[in-house]
Each structure stands twice: as C-alpha cells, then as structure tokens.
C-alpha cells in the first residue's frame, strides 16, 4: 500500500528525474540540425562564439523552439492539472471545456481571412483569445443555474459548445480551399513557427496564467474535497474558480494561437504525476510545470529525428503517440491509486 | 458571542427559515433539533455565511458576518460537514493541515507552529497513528475524526457540526460526541450541533433549539423543550423525557409513532 513516507521520497525523485529529462532533451534539441552539431559546438554557439552558421542554428532556429516548447508544455500541463482539481473530474481539461475549440475557431478565421489593417501575426492570436474567452463565458453562463455552476452541467455544456465550434472549424477548413493545407497542418500542432517575436507575446501571458494557478494551489486542495469544505475553510469558491478558468483560457489561447492544437499534454501529464506524487497541489502543480515542459521537449526532439525523410512531424501527433500508450499502461496497472474510483 | 437576529431565508420563493432569533453564549453546546427538511442545515450554513440570509443578521462578537471576509470567518468558526466522502488520496496530515489555511498567505509555507498545532489536533482526536495514511482508504468514523481534527487545527471559538453521527456505528457515535464534549469543557469551545438524534442531543447539549415548520418552536434546556406535547407536535412521536433512576440520567423514551397509536398490536405467536 501507498504511504506518505514513500510518497515523499518519490516526490523528490520525480522532480529530479523530470529536471534531468528536460535538460537532456533541451540540449539534444538545441544541437539538432540537418547535420547535428556536437554538444560542444552547441554550447559555444549558445554563448555566441563559434561559426556563424552554428550561432544561427542555435539562436535563430533551435532556441526559440526550445523556449516555446517549454512554455507551452508547462502551461498546458498545469492548466489540465488545475481543471481536473477544480472540477474533481478526471476528464476535465481545456479541451473538454471547449476552450481549445474556441481558440481554434478564432485562429482558423485568422488563417482564412486577411484583414488589411491588422498584420496576420497579431490577428491570429488576437482572434484566438477573443473566441477562447467568449467560449469560456458562453459555457459558463449556459451552466450557470440559480447562482450555482454544477460541475456536470459545466462539462456537458463544454462538450456541446466545443463540438459545435469544432464543426465550424471543419467547415472553414473545407471552404478554405487554397489555405486548407495551412489550417490542417496547424490543427496537428507544430513548433516550426516559434520565433522570438512570438515568444515575446506568449511568455508573459503563460507566465501570468501559471502564477495565478500556482498561487491558488492551497485553495484548490480544499476545493477537491468539495465546494462546501472549501467555503468552510474560508475560500471564496466562486471567485477563485472564475480566476482559475480565466487563467486557463489565457494559457490555452496563447498555446493554440502560436503552435496550434497540441492534445494530450493537459490530460495526461497531470494524471501521471498525480499517481506518482499524490493529489496535493502544492507539490503537484510545480511538478506539472516541469513535467509538461519535459514531455513536450522530448516529443519535439523525437518528432524531429524519428523520420528524417519526412522532415519534422507535427508535434501534436507525437504527444498522442507517446502519451496515450503510457497512460493506458498506468491506467491498467495502477487504477486503484488514481484516486478517482 | 454569536447573535442571530430575526433571520429569514427562502429558496426560490419558498421559505426555508423564518424569524429565527438566537443568542449563543461562550462554551455552550447547543443542539438544533427538528425533523428532516425543517431548515436545520440551512440555519447552520447561515451561521458561517455559506448562505446569505434574505432578512435579518448574524452577528459575531457584534459584527455582521456580511461585512467580514470568508477567510476571517474561518479563523473563528470551524465546520464539520455532514457528508465527508473524499476520493482523492490526500494524506491524513494534508487534510488536518488544511485547517491552517485561513491563517496562511497564498505563497506562504506552513511554519513549525502550524505543524505543532496540527500535531496537537491529531493527538486530541486520537488519530496521530493514522497521520501517514491516505484518507480515501479510511472508514467513515475515522474520516469523521480527521475532519474534526481539521476543525480543531483552525483554533476556532465556535465549531458547527452537521449530523455528526449520521453514518457512524453506535460506538463511534458516542466517541465523537464525547470528544466534542471534552473539547467544549477544556477549551471553552462553543459547539452547535445539528441533529435529529434525540438521545444524543439530550445527553450532550446544554440547550436545545427545536425547529418546526421553518420557525423556532422552542428554546431551552432539554427538559424544557422536549416535553411530551412538543415531541408529539414536531416529530409526531409518542415519547417522554424523564429521569431514569437506575441509569441516573435523563433518558428519552420513545414509545412509537402517534399515527400508529390506535392500531391494535399484532398478537404474539407463542
């Protein structure tokens, strides 16, 4: 049987392991190129010395990718962890609440139509934010019954609205004709567009979202026991829940707008870590940040090297191909420790 | 210390409580008694502002609860709620430590003082040995004690208990109430218990608030409130509260339901 001393030791091991995995794949990803650099070359290029080509590969091509992967992985994973705790539901994730579809719709509109007075670099994320937030408030107000927001209704509303919006995205894709390739490529998720300009916008948004979530970890613990428990312990449940939903929408919209739809990180990473280190969000949420970054970093590296003849595979394919089997393995082996049944 | 002034609460136009007045003194154990659906639990929720009254006020040390943050209320009032099924694998210590939440800032870690308070609360409730166990593997009675320990860790002046004995075995029922009684004695803790368990309330409460038809029907000592007539009207039972000479204590004797009184008893088969 699981006990606390064992869990405490495991927590330390997990943090250390995630950190090492993150560093290894960061280095590998930084050195990756048509002809990969040696680690030594990559290191010197990172410090700004060495051949011009090496510096360009590391600073212009690989580093933005690495930074973006860390930001998005961490952001999506913590959002998923927060939503699962918030709704006391193993299925909850930005995807289930319709947030991903909402952001997708905005981004798809931005990809299809061009407005002359806004550069498309800004138009796509802007539209993604607007539709993501609108989806959140739509879903929230549908589920809002007599001063309460029951979890079941919220999830069902999310699924219904999400399906509707996904259909709209498909419709746009179908109608888009020429740009269809672009939209499809983007719905599979990819980090190829990562550059410093994008990072300048994404980094503050995701950081802000993550800070809001981290600062509520204790409130979330109480809310996992039930809203009444949380209120008895002095948590302003409605306010905190809304704050956390907005923070999740912020992170999701930023992620979807710049790298497309990357599934499975938000669902699987928090689950795996909850099995390993327990449900206490004070430890779990920081772990999801690290775990999400490490997982996406690893997926990115693998997507770049696995099939050189096909070029770089969309990362959304990699996350599901790697994440799902491991998740199913854990589900079968350690169902009882999931804490959901 | 706590004063309820003429409060009323209705849910979707339907009155749940009307014209409730009550003054709670320090160190008292008060039982709120009444049949299911009479508004007992609602009254308890109004007492720590989980619900807001439509009319009237709840005052704590002279201040209207509506003017105080939930966090500050939680520093004075702890709650042991009715259902406490917890399906997440929190450790017992994690749960008891949640009692310190109202005193900790968002990013502040738990101090040694918090750890000491938590240890003490676990000692008082006799759950020290469970400290490392996971809450979702524990029995109802054990879980109840963990939640009481959490309430104690809040260092409250008032503890509200909602049907504390509902899902417990009979031996655990007394264990929980003995514990609450001891705490009230030792720490001058004010305790408000919602229950429909007549014998339990008679044994442990100093005063009883009897609720009937959404209103306070009677307030006073168990002897004053639980008269034969009152129990007939409120619970529709034929019962008697009297001093039992052999047991040397007050006892509630329940004879039967009033509606069935006229029925001729089924003859025993020899």
Written account of the structure:
The complex is a heterodimer of chains A (about 350) and B (about 270). Chain A is built from 14 helices and no strands. Chain A has a single domain, classed as ABC transporter involved in vitamin B12 uptake, BtuC (Orthogonal Bundle). Chain A is mainly α and about 350 residues long. In chain A, about 75% of the residues lie in helices and about 0% in strands. Chain A has helices spanning about 5-30, 40-45, 50-85, 100-110, 120-145, 150-175, 180-185, 195-215, 215-225, 225-230, 235-260, 265-275, 280-305, 315-335. Chain A starts with a helix and ends in an 8-residue tail after the last helix. Chain B is an alpha/beta fold and about 270 residues long. Chain B has one domain (about 1-225): 3-Layer(aba) Sandwich (Rossmann fold). In chain B, about 30% of the residues lie in helices and about 30% in strands. Chain B contains nine helices and twelve strands. Chain B has helices spanning about 40-45, 70-75, 90-95, 110-125, 140-155, 170-185, 200-205, 220-225, 230-235; strands at about 1-10, 15-25, 30-35, 55-60, 65, 75-80, 160, 190-195, 205-210, 215-220, 235-245, 250-255. In chain B, the strands form three sheets. A six-stranded mixed β-sheet of chain B has the order 6-7-8-3-9-10, with helices on both faces. Chain B has a four-stranded antiparallel β-sheet with strand order 2-1-4-5, covered by helices on one side. In chain B, strands 11-12 form a two-stranded antiparallel sheet. In chain B, a hairpin with a 2-residue loop joins β9 and β10 (about 215-220). In chain B, α4 crosses α5 (about 140-155). Chain B is globular and about 55 Å long. The N and C termini of chain B lie far apart (about 60 Å).
Report helical residue fraction of chain B. 25-40%
Mean pLDDT of chain A: 86
Class computed from helices, strands and strand pairing of chain B: alpha/beta
Radius of gyration based on Cα positions of chain B: 20 Å
Oligomer: heterodimer
Q: At CATH's second level, what is the architecture of chain B?
A: 3-Layer(aba) Sandwich
The computed structural class of chain A is mainly alpha
Helix content of chain A: over 70%
At the fourth CATH level, what is the homologous superfamily of chain B? P-loop containing nucleotide triphosphate hydrolases
Q: Helical segment tally of chain A?
A: 14
- Order of H and E elements of chain A: HHHHHHHHHHHHHH
Mean pLDDT of chain B: 86
Strand count, sense and barrel status of the largest sheet of chain A are:
none
Total count of strands of chain A: 0
Total count of helical runs of at least 4 residues of chain B = 9
């Amino acid at each position: 049987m699981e006990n606390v001393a064992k869990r405490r030791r495991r927590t330390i091991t997990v943090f250390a392991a995630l950190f090492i995995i993150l560093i290894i794949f960061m280095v590998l990803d930084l050195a990756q190129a048509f002809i990969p650099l040696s680690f030594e070359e990559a290191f010197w290029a990172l410090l700004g010395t060495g051949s011009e080509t090496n510096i360009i590969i590391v600073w212009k091509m690989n580093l933005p990718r690495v930074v973006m992967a860390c930001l998005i992985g961490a952001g999506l994973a913590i959002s998923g962890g927060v939503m699962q705790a918030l709704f006391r539901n193993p299925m909850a994730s930005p995807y289930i609440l319709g947030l991903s579809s909402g952001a997708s719709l905005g981004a798809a509109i931005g990809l299809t139509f061009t407005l002359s007075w806004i550069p498309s670099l800004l138009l796509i994320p802007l539209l993604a934010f607007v539709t993501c937030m609108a989806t959140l408030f739509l879903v929230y107000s549908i589920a809002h019954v007599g001063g309460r927001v029951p979890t079941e209704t919220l999830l069902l509303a999310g699924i219904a609205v999400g399906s509707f919006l996904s259909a709209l995205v498909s419709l746009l894709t179908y109608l888009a004709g020429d740009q269809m390739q672009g939209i499809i490529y983007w719905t599979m998720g990819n980090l190829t567009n990562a550059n410093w300009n994008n990072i300048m916008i994404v980094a503050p948004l995701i950081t802000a979202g993550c800070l809001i979530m981290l600062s509520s970890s204790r409130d979330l613990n109480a809310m996992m026991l039930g809203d009444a428990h949380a209120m008895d312990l002095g948590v302003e449940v409605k306010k905190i829940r809304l704050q956390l939903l907005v923070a999740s929408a912020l992170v999701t919209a930023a992620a979807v707008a710049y790298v497309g739809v990357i599934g499975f990180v938000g669902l699987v990473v928090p689950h795996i870590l909850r099995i390993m280190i327990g449900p206490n969000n004070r430890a779990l949420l920081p772990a999801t940040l690290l775990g999400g970054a490490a997982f996406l970093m690893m997926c990115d590296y693998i997507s770049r090297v696995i099939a050189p003849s096909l070029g770089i595979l969309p990362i959304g394919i990699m996350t599901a191909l790697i994440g799902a089997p491991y998740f199913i393995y854990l589900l079968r082996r350690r169902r009882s420790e999931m804490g959901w049944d | 210390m706590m004063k309820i002034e003429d409060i009323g609460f209705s849910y979707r136009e339907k009155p749940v409580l009307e014209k409730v007045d009550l003054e709670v003194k320090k160190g008292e154990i008060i039982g709120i008694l009444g049949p299911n659906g009479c508004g007992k639990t609602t009254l308890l929720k109004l007492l720590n502002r989980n619900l807001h009254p439509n009319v009237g006020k709840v005052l704590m040390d002279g201040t209207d609860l509506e003017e105080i943050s939930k966090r500050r209320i939680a520093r004075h009032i702890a709650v042991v709620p009715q259902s406490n099924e917890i399906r997440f694998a929190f450790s017992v210590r994690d749960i008891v430590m949640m009692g310190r939440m109202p005193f900790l800032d968002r990013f502040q870690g738990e101090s040694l003082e918090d750890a000491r308070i938590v240890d003490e609360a676990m000692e008082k409730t006799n759950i020290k040995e469970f400290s490392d166990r996971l809450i979702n593997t524990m029995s109802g009675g054990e879980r109840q004690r963990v939640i009481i320990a959490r309430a104690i860790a809040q260092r409250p002046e008032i503890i509200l208990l909602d049907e504390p004995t509902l899902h417990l075995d009979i031996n655990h029922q007394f264990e929980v109430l003995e514990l609450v009684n001891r705490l009230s004695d030792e720490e001058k803790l004010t305790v408000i218990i919602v229950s429909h368990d007549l014998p339990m309330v008679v044994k442990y409460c100093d005063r009883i608030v009897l609720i009937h038809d959404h209103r306070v029907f009677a307030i006073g000592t168990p002897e004053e409130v639980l008269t034969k007539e009152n129990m007939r009207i409120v619970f529709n039972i034929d019962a008697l509260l009297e001093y039992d000479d052999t047991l040397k204590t007050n006892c509630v004797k329940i004879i039967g339901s009033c509606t069935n009184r006229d029925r001729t008893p089924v003859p025993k088969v020899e």
